[in-house]
Amino acid sequence: MTAPLLQVLNVSKSFGGMKVLDRVSLRVEGGSLTLLIGPNGSGKTTLLNIISGVLKPDSGRVFFKGLDITHLRPHERFRLGITRSFQTPRLFTSLSVTENLLVPLRDYAEERVLSMLLGNSWVAREALAARDAWKLLRATGLESHWSKRSSELSGGQSKLLEYARAVISNPELVLLDEPLAGVNYAVAREIVRRLVDLKEAGLGLLVVEHRLDLAMKHADYVYVLHQGRVISEGPPSKVVDDPRVAEAYLGGPGCSL
């Protein structure tokens, strides 16, 4: 049986005696969009931080394509094909839009040095990276802003650049923390369309999101966190009808998604 792209097994995490995650398990398949929802403070971002290697779990394991990555550092997970975007874009404000987009590829600097020493054409690789960056700028509608500093972008444009940075390295798994937060409906729809494109291209997506009107339509599977525990999971239609979700996430019985 083929291992899932991502598997989280019984992960727990506490801060100062407060348990933020309590034996959380989930899985993400390639070519799927998995939605992680729950009220504020339910542990969603903490779980993304553990999956991406920013935090270590107190107990439990994280597997990527069957490989135990629990103790790997973030850059090691990146090299395996895991990327991450943040709720608040973490851009280099002194760099241009294009330079920001190329930053994730600089992880391979030592490989470029080795290529030069061996006589290989690292210039061709640089040209390919620039071409890929331009394609993404066009795809996200940012091509006219290519030379601007990222600090000059609007909130929605910053979100699009954050998305582009997460996918330029051709990852297999993308973790997104509220990609639709703080943007208008038109930009949100554009981001969702791009996420669907990634899914259809075979990538696995784990998305934390509160704007369920858009996200639920395209999710293949949903996990609901409440007080650090998974209280419901399944296809969107099943989760929508779960009274535990209405009570914990939406404020009480009788609410609807």
Automatic annotation (TrEMBL):
Keywords: ATP-binding, Nucleotide-binding, Transport. GO terms for cellular component: plasma membrane. The keyword Transport applies. One of its GO terms (molecular function) is ATP binding. It comes from the Archaea. Pfam families: ABC_tran, BCA_ABC_TP_C. InterPro entries: AAA+_ATPase (IPR003593), ABC_AA/LPS_Transport (IPR051120), ABC_transporter-like_ATP-bd (IPR003439), BCA_ABC_TP_C (IPR032823), P-loop_NTPase (IPR027417). Residues 6-252 form the ABC transporter domain. CDD domains: ABC_Mj1267_LivG_branched. This is ABC transporter ATP-binding protein.
